[in-house]
Amino acid sequence: MNIIEKIIALHSKQKIVKPGNIVDVMIDTRAARDFGGANVVKNLLDNGLTVQDPSKTIFTFDCNPGGSDQKYAQNQHYCRQYARENSIRIYDVDSGIGTHLAIDNGLAWPGSTFVSTDSHANIMGAIGSFGQGMGDQDIAAAWAKGYVWFKVPASIRLNLNGTKPADVSAKDIVLNLLSIFGANKLLGYSVEIYGKDVDKLTLSERVTISSMATEMGAIILFFSPTPAMLDELKALTGKAYASVSADPDAEYEKTFDIDLGKFVQMVAKPGHPHDDIAVNDVMNIKIDSGFIGSCTNGRIEDLRIAASILKGNKIAPGVVLKIVPATDAIWNQAMNEGLIKIFKDSGAMVSNAGCAGCAAGQVGQNGPGEVTISTGNRNFEGKQGKGFVYLASPAIVAASSVAGCITTPDQIPGTPALFTVTHDTLRVTRKEEKIKSDKPTIVEGTVWIIPKDDIDTDMIFHNRYLTITDIREMGQYTFDNLKGFEDFSKKSKAGDIVITNKNFGAGSSRQQAVDCFLSLGISCILAESFGAIYERNAINAAMPILTYDPSILEKADLKNGDRIRVDFVSGELTNLENRKTCSVNKFYDAQLAIYRNGGLL
Hints:
By secondary structure, the chain is α/β, with parallel strands linked by helices. It has 3 domains: about 5-260, Aconitase, domain 3, CATH 3.30.499; about 265-410, Aconitase, domain 3, CATH 3.30.499.10; about 440-595, Alpha-Beta Barrel (Aconitase, domain 4), CATH 3.20.19.10. Helices cover about 25% and strands about 20% of the residues. α6 packs parallel to α7, α9 (about 300-310) packs across α11 (about 340-345) and α9 (about 300-310) runs parallel beside α12.
């Protein structure tokens, strides 16, 4: 048998397995991340299932270290609560990437099985372990039963012959392989990699290559552990492991012989990891940012390579380099070795350990039009942001960040590439419609009475929506964090009027808390008082706000749902249901002038 057949046979109580066999495989370590973890728990609870063996079960919070996104924070805490009740270990937001933690802490080992809600769990092939990324239901089944069904894949033997060129890194090796096999020629196969120079690859280099099996469509890329690599694992985990290897007469569906000596330094062009090109063919393309990290290139060796290039250099003017170690232990090691100081002295930004931009939950994202060179494993459109992402090795990313353009360490120019002012990068988006100078100073609408003090801007327009800049999109989120009024945006109509209590709009300076009402067409807001910043924001946006004495509710006999008329100039309020009138504080002169102007600007 070959490597994957040996591991599956061992974990399915079979003497021998062959491609196409479907067997139940016992899983040594069963992981769920903050991305997907909450759904794993939900699947268990909804189906009345319990955890079969908590000692083999873990959570890893690596997609959004710090819980900086409200939904991630909610899911993380939900998982924490479940973990406390079921004695499950958590590698929390201060720990790092789950697959790396598994390798470095002995949760996966040569010949073991490991599953996670991480599609790059097949990184375990670097140590001769069978790792698989799986969906929420699969992981829930593994947690509940300890086994998952699996179809034994066919295997390919990949011989990398010849001598590796000195300037070719592990990332270059996998990009060269991607250029040869694309995204689907290895689809569904278990791949074993062999060669004289392959045996010399360190653990970190094997991790880099195995981590991109998913991008090649492979089930896994296996390396048979060498004595030197087993020594590395023992140094990390304190445990001695035996190697796992294919039998001499193992069967493979295909064998490929490839000349490693012909490999060159490469980058993947934006959009597809397999759209690869020699770095010499894209030299001098201007970049906006660089990123070093991810499960592919966040090891201490990667950081040392970057530091050797950044030492004594400065990041090019206007370029941002973001560096994210894979684990907290690697972060601390980088600090103890002085690498963090080198990074900071060069002008790079260093973040806490985690998946970073690949998971859209930490530093490393880019904006529309931004050109980034990244050590990540994916550059699909929208994966690391809305810009353009080139994939490359840590050495090329570090060198390019100093140069301000794509380059190699031996060709960093004496003067970095600078941004040129073209005056057409940002275009004026002036509104086409003519600003009306005859804005109505008398409005009529249906009343929403919200009898609460201190309604803050997070209740009005929650901070999870602050990235929205199009006012047309804002209305749907109005009050969705105000208990009892979460459906306001669905039930309110253009022209409606809000009446509330003291200190409306307390809290932050966010303009969206005003603009969301403009988006819905709310005709005015009456409050006993407004937050100081909110009052200015509303007046400047020509959103009609007025203050009133609380006695008006009684004087006008106002009830929720009544139709009223408000005169901004005279301050007269009329309940159109009973014709009763009362006075509110009218617009003051500056407020009226700004309102008639259509806003401050």
